[in-house]
Design brief:
With 974 residues, the protein is mostly helical. Among the domains are: 216 residues, Rossmann fold (3-Layer(aba) Sandwich); 65 residues; 79 residues, Winged helix-like DNA-binding domain superfamily/Winged helix DNA-binding domain (Arc Repressor Mutant, subunit A); 79 residues, no CATH class; 66 residues, Winged helix-like DNA-binding domain superfamily/Winged helix DNA-binding domain (Arc Repressor Mutant, subunit A), CATH 1.10.10. Helix content is 69%, strand content 5%. The strands form three sheets. Strands 2-3-4-1-5 form a five-stranded parallel β-sheet, sandwiched between helices. A three-stranded antiparallel β-sheet has the order 8-10-9. A hairpin with a 2-residue loop joins strand 9 and strand 10. Helix 12 packs parallel to helix 14 and helix 25 packs parallel to helix 27. The termini are far apart. The N terminus is likely disordered.
C-alpha cells in the first residue's frame, strides 16, 4: 500500500494538469512554450512534473530531465546540462554527430562528453566574451530545436528556485530565438526561496513579453482531494476522522500527508475495520510539527548504519554514485548497495539514471545534511574531494565545481584555492561570469593577506564582474588589484588593472574617471612596448575623440597606437589601431583619409580571419561611405557587416543592422525591401532590453513613411521615437530631431516646426563645426528654414553647410546647398551644386532624393526665367514620383513648374493670407480633383480637406469651388 504511493493517481490537480496539457499540445503544434509550477516544498510540484513527463512520452515526445541544486558549488547551466547530458549519453555517435553538427565544438565547452564521444573537434575562432556567450546560447538553442523537430521535445526541470543566472539567461534566450520549435520547457520552483531573484524576475518578464509563459500556482489540497489521496494510498476508504486528522495536521500539503500516513502505517495505527480504514490514536504516536520533523522520524526508523550512510550521501550532492559513496564511507560496495536498497524501499532515495541515485525529495537531503556535525562534515568533504580527484571523469564544469565545493569546506585551503580558481576559469569559458565571481571570491577568502596570487585573482575578479555587467563591483576589485600591484612594484600588473578600470568606468559612462584610469595605465605601461599599451592608446583615442569630442588629442593617441602596432608587427593590433584612427578622421571631417585607413583595417581583419574586427571595420566604413556620398557602397558594406555579425552572434552589431538596411532601401525607393528589413529588425529588437534600438527602429519606420509621402504616419512614428530619444539625452536626440521638424512642416504645423528648429539649433551649437554629428542636423535646419522662408537662417546656415559639400547626411548636401543659394539668387553656384546632386542621386539609385533634386532644379530654372526648362525638369520629377507610386506625382500634375511648396525654393507670400498647404489644395481644386482625390494626393483625411476648403472660402470670399478656382487663376496660383 504505502510502497505503492508514488504509483497512485494524482489527487485533485484538475486545473493544474489541464494547463500543463494545454501547453504540451501548443508545443506539439509548433509553438515553444514554457510552463512553471510554483509552490511551497512538498506541495506536489515534482509529482506534476512526473505526470507531465509521462504524458509527453506517451505523445511520442523526447523527454529530458534535469534540476538545479542548492550546493554553493553548483556548475553553471546545471539543469540544462543534466537534461542535455541525458540525450548525449543515450544517442549513438552517428546521431550525436548529426544533431550537434558544426556547433559541436561550441557545445563541448559546457558538455565535455560530446568531445569524448566524437573525438577531437575543430577549434572555433575566438570571440569577445559577450559574442562567445551568444554563440554558445545559439548552439544550445539550435540543438534543442533539432531534437524537437521530429516528434517534439519536453525538457523537465526541477528546483529552478536554485537556478543560476546563466541557466536563466539561457532559458530566456532559447524562448526568444526558437519561438516555432516543438519544444515544451516545464519547471518547478519554490516561491520565496529564489537564489537569483533579479535574474529570475527578468526571465519571467521576458517570457511574459514573448507570450510564451504559463505560470501555475500549485496550492494545498482541500478536504475532498485529500480524501482522494488517502483512499488511493490505503486502497480503500477511511473513516471520516482519519481524513479530518490528516487534514488538520498536514494542512493539505501532500508530502507531509504522505509522511504522516507512512508513519501511521509503520506504527500499525491504521487498520481495516470492515470496508474502511480506521486510526488507532493510541498507536499513532506524537505528531511531527513540520515536514522536517516528519522526515527525521522516518530516518530514525532506519538502522543507524543506513541513516549514517545517507547522511554521507547528502554531503556528496543532489545525485550520487554508489561506488563513490562506498569509497568515501570506507565500506564494501556490496554492503553499501544493500543499505541503499533499504533506503530505496523506504522511498528516501530513487534511481536517477546514468548509474546515479538521488533523494526522492530535496527536503530529505536537506534534513540529512543538517544532521551531520560540523567537524565530521569537514572531514567528509575532504574525503569526497579526494575521491573525486582520483576518478577518471574529465575535469569539466561539474567536476571542477564539485571539487571546489568540497575542498573549500574541508579545511584544505590550498586545494580549495586551486580548484576554485580552475572552476572560475571554466565558468568564464562557459560564459557564466556570475559563477566565476563566486568561485574567485571563495579563492580570495582562502588566501593569506600577502599571498603572491592575490593580485592576479583580484584582476580576474574585476574582469569577471565587468563581464557580468557589475560595474561598481568590477571597479572596486580592479582598484584593489591595482593598489596591490603598485605596492609590490609590479608596473605591468598595475597597468593592466588600471586599463581594465578605465574600461569599467567607460561602460557606466563615468568618462572623467575612465580618462584618468587610461592615462594612469599609459604611464604604467609606457616603459615597454606591449599589446596592452596599444590597446590602452586605442581606447584613450576613442574616448577622447568620440565621447569627449577632443579630436586633436584623440588623433594623437590613435597615431601613437598605429605606430606602436606596426613596430610590434601584429596584424590584429594594426587593424584595430587603423580602425580607431580612421574612425576619428571620419568623425572629424577627414573623410578621404579616414576611409583609406578603414579600408586597410578591413583588409587586415579579413586576412587574419577576425570576423569581430571585420564587423567593426565594416560598420565604420559603411558610415564613412554613407557620409561621403557613396551610399550604394555603404549599403553593400552594411550587408557585409550583417554577415559578420551573424557569424559572430554579435547582438550589439545586430541591434541596428536591419534598421540601417531598411533605411537604405527607403532612400532608394525599394519599399518592399524596406518593409522586409523592418520586420527583421522588429524580431531582433524584441529580444533586447535597451530602449535605444527600439527607438531607432521606430524612427526608421517613420523614415519609410516619409519617403513614401505618408506624412501622418511618419509624424506618428517620429513622435514615439523622439520621446524615447529625449530620455536617452541630447547626444542621441540631436541626430533625429530635425527629421521630426520636417514631418511637422509636411503636416502644416509651422509653429511646431519653428520650435523644433530652435531646440535643434541649441543642440548643435556645442558640437564641433566640422564633425559628422553636426552635418545632418544643419541640413535639416536648412530645409526647415527654406520651407519657412526664413531668409536670416538661410543666409546663416549656408556657410556652416559648405564644409560638407559633396556629402550625404540623409539628404544630399549639394542639393540642400543648391536650394539655399537659389533662395539667395546665386544662380550659377546653385546650378553646379544641383547638377552634382542629381548625378549623385542617379549614381547611387536614390530615387526619392533624385525627385526632390529635380524639383529644386525646376525651381531654379523658373527663378531664372527658364520656363520651358522648368517644365521639363518638373515632368522628369513627376515621372520619378510616379515610378515610386508617390502621391506627390498627382500634385505636380496639378501645379505649374516651380510652385510646389515641397520644392523648397524661395518662400513667397500668398494672397489673402493663404498657407502653402491651402494653396496646394486650391491647385487641386482647379485641376478638378474631388475631396477624396485631394486627400489621396496630399495624404490627408477627407475631413481635413473639407476644413481646408472652408478656410480657403472664408479667406478669399468664395462660396463654391468654381469661385475658388477663378480666384486661383486671377492670382496666378494655378
Amino acid at each position: 500500500m504505502g510502497d505503492q504511493f508514488a504509483l497512485t493517481p494524482i489527487a485533485g490537480r484538475q486545473h493544474e494538469r489541464a494547463v500543463l496539457w494545454g501547453q504540451l499540445e501548443a508545443a506539439l503544434g509548433g509553438r515553444l512554450r514554457v510552463a512553471l509550477l510554483a509552490g511551497e516544498p512538498g506541495i506536489g510540484k515534482t509529482r506534476l512534473l512526473d505526470d507531465l513527463a509521462d504524458r509527453a512520452g506517451a505523445a511520442g515526445m523526447l523527454v529530458l530531465r534535469g534540476g538545479a541544486s542548492d550546493a554553493a558549488g553548483m556548475p553553471p547551466y546545471l539543469p540544462l546540462l543534466e537534461a542535455i547530458g541525458q540525450y548525449v549519453r543515450s544517442a549513438s555517435d552517428e546521431l550525436l554527430r548529426t544533431h550537434a553538427g558544426a556547433l559541436a565544438p561550441v557545445l563541448a565547452t559546457i558538455i565535455p562528453e560530446i568531445a569524448l564521444r566524437l573525438g577531437t573537434l575543430p577549434a572555433s575562432y575566438p570571440l569577445p566574451a559577450e559574442q562567445a556567450r551568444l554563440r554558445l546560447f545559439e548552439a544550445v538553442g539550435a540543438l534543442l530545436a533539432t531534437l524537437a523537430s521530429a516528434a517534439g521535445l519536453a525538457i523537465v526541470l526541477d528546483d529552478l528556485h536554485w537556478a543560476d543566472q546563466a541557466t536563466l539567461d539561457l532559458l530566456g534566450y532559447i524562448a526568444r530565438r526558437q519561438p516555432a520549435a516543438r519544444l515544451l520547457i516545464v519547471g518547478a520552483y519554490r516561491e520565496g526561496e529564489i537564489t537569483e531573484p533579479a535574474a529570475f524576475g527578468r526571465t519571467i518578464a521576458d517570457l511574459t513579453r514573448l507570450h510564451a509563459l504559463a505560470t501555475v500556482a500549485v496550492g494545498r489540497l482541500d478536504a475532498p482531494d485529500l480524501d482522494t489521496l488517502l483512499s488511493a494510498y490505503l486502497g480503500g476508504p477511511a473513516e471520516p476522522d482519519v481524513g479530518a486528522r490528516l487534514l488538520a495536521h498536514s494542512e493539505g500539503n501532500p508530502f507531509f500527508a504522505e509522511e504522516l500516513l507512512r508513519s501511521w502505517m509503520e506504527a500499525g495505527a491504521l487498520a481495516r475495520s470492515g470496508a474502511s480504514w480506521r486510526l488507532d490514536q493510541s498507536l499513532a504516536g506524537p505528531l511531527p510539527g513540520s515536514i522536517v520533523l516528519a522526515v527525521r522520524q522516518r530516518v530514525a526508523r532506519l538502522t543507524p548504519a543506513c541513516a549514517d550512510l545517507l547522511r554521507t550521501a547528502a554531503l556528496i550532492g543532489r545525485g550520487f554514485a554508489p561506488e563513490l559513496l562506498a569509497e568515501v564511507a570506507g565500506q564494501d560496495i556490496e554492503h553499501v548497495e544493500d543499505l541503499l536498497v533499504t533506503a530505496t524501499q523506504a522511498q528516501l532515495i530513487r534511481a536517477a539514471g546514468a548509474g546515479l541515485l538521488s533523494f526522492s525529495h530535496d527536503k530529505i537531503r536537506e534534513c540529512l545534511y543538517d544532521e551531520v556535525p560540523p567537524q565530521r562534515r569537514r572531514r567528509l568533504h575532504g574525503l569526497i574531494g579526494q575521491a573525486l580527484v582520483a576518478r577518471p571523469e574529465p575535469a569539466g564544469a561539474p567536476q571542477l565545481a564539485a571539487l571546489a565545493f568540497h575542498f573549500t569546506r574541508s579545511g584544505d585551503h590550498e586545494s580549495g584555492i586551486a580548484y576554485s580558481r580552475r572552476a572560475a576559469e571554466q565558468a568564464l569559458r562557459a560564459h557564466a561570469p556570475d559563477s566565476a565571481i563566486a568561485h574567485l571570491r571563495t579563492a580570495l577568502a582562502l588566501l593569506g593577506a600577502n599571498d603572491n596570487r592575490r593580485g592576479e585573482l583580484l584582476l580576474a575578479l574585476g574582469e569577471a564582474a565587468s563581464a557580468a555587467d557589475q560595474g561598481p563591483a568590477a571597479i572596486e576589485a580592479l582598484a584593489e588589484a591595482r593598489a596591490w600591484f603598485v605596492q609590490r612594484g609590479d608596473r605591468p600588473g598595475a597597468g593592466r588593472a588600471a586599463y581594465r578600470q578605465g574600461q569599467a568606468y567607460w561602460r557606466i559612462e563615468a568618462l572623467g574617471q575612465a580618462l584618468a584610469a587610461f592615462e594612469a595605465a599609459l604611464v604604467l605601461l609606457e616603459g615597454q612596448p606591449s599589446p596592452e599599451l596599444v590597446l590602452t592608446l586605442i581606447d584613450l583615442a576613442s574616448l577622447q575623440a568620440m565621447s569627449l569630442h577632443q579630436h586633436e588629442p584623440g588623433m594623437a593617441y590613435s597615431q601613437r597606437a598605429l605606430a606602436l602596432a606596426h613596430s610590434l608587427e601584429d596584424d590584429r593590433l594594426i587593424a584595430s589601431a587603423s580602425r580607431a584612427a580612421g574612425n576619428i578622421d571620419v568623425r572629424n571631417g577627414n573623410l578621404a583619409a579616414g576611409i583609406t585607413l578603414l579600408e586597410q583595417a578591413l583588409a587586415l581583419a579579413d586576412q587574419a580571419d577576425d570576423p569581430v574586427e571585420a564587423a567593426e571595420c565594416c560598420a565604420q566604413l559603411s558610415h564613412a561611405c554613407y557620409w561621403a556620398g557613396e551610399t550604394a557602397r555603404a549599403f553593400a558594406l552594411a550587408e557585409r557587416q550583417l554577415a559578420y555579425a551573424h557569424r559572430t552572434h554579435d547582438a550589439y552589431q545586430l541591434r541596428h543592422m536591419y534598421s540601417l538596411l531598411a533605411r537604405g532601401a527607403s532612400l532608394q525607393g525599394r519599399w518592399e525591401d524596406a518593409e522586409r528589413w523592418i520586420a527583421a529588425a522588429q524580431r531582433e529588437v524584441e529580444q533586447l532590453a535597451s530602449p535605444e534600438p527600439r527607438a531607432f527602429l521606430q524612427m526608421t519606420r517613420g523614415d519609410l513613411a516619409y519617403e513614401r509621402g505618408d506624412y501622418p504616419a511618419a509624424l506618428a512614428d517620429y513622435a514615439v521615437a523622439i520621446e524615447a530619444f529625449r530620455v536617452l539625452g541630447p547626444g542621441a536626440l540631436v541626430w533625429y530631431l530635425g527629421q521630426y521638424g520636417l514631418a511637422q512642416l509636411a503636416a502644416n504645423a509651422y509653429d511646431t516646426a519653428r520650435r523644433i528648429a530652435g531646440e535643434l539649433a541649441a543642440l548643435v551649437e556645442p558640437l564641433p563645426a566640422l564633425a559628422m554629428s553636426s552635418a545632418g542636423p544643419l541640413a535639416t535646419l536648412a530645409l526647415i528654414a527654406l520651407d519657412l522662408g526664413d531668409q536670416e537662417q538661410i543666409a546663416a546656415l549656408t556657410p556652416r553647410l559648405r564644409p560638407f559639400q559633396g556629402q550625404f547626411h540623409d539628404y544630399l548636401i549639394d542639393r540642400v546647398l543648391g536650394q539655399l543659394l537659389t533662395a539667395q539668387r546665386d544662380w550659377v553656384a546653385a546650378e553646379g551644386l544641383l547638377e552634382s546632386a542629381a548625378a549623385s542621386a542617379r549614381r547611387n539609385s536614390l530615387a526619392p532624393e533624385l525627385a526632390r533634386t529635380l524639383e529644386a532644379q525646376a525651381a531654379l530654372a523658373l527663378a531664372r526665367g527658364h520656363g520651358s526648362a522648368a517644365r521639363s525638369l518638373l515632368a522628369d520629377a513627376r515621372a520619378v514620383y510616379e515610378s515610386l507610386a508617390h502621391p506627390r506625382a498627382m500634385l505636380l500634375r496639378a501645379q505649374p513648374a516651380g510652385q510646389g511648396s515641397r520644392a523648397r525654393g524661395p518662400a513667397r507670400a500668398y494672397p489673402a493670407g493663404l498657407s502653402p498647404r491651402e494653396v496646394e489644395v486650391l491647385r487641386l481644386v482647379v485641376a478638378g480633383s474631388s475631396n477624396r482625390e485631394i486627400a489621396a494626393a496630399l495624404t490627408l483625411s477627407e475631413k481635413t480637406v473639407a476644413n481646408h476648403l472652408a478656410s480657403i472660402f472664408a479667406k478669399i470670399g468664395a462660396d463654391n469651388r468654381a469661385a475658388a478656382a477663378a480666384f486661383a487663376v486671377r492670382h496666378q496660383l494655378a
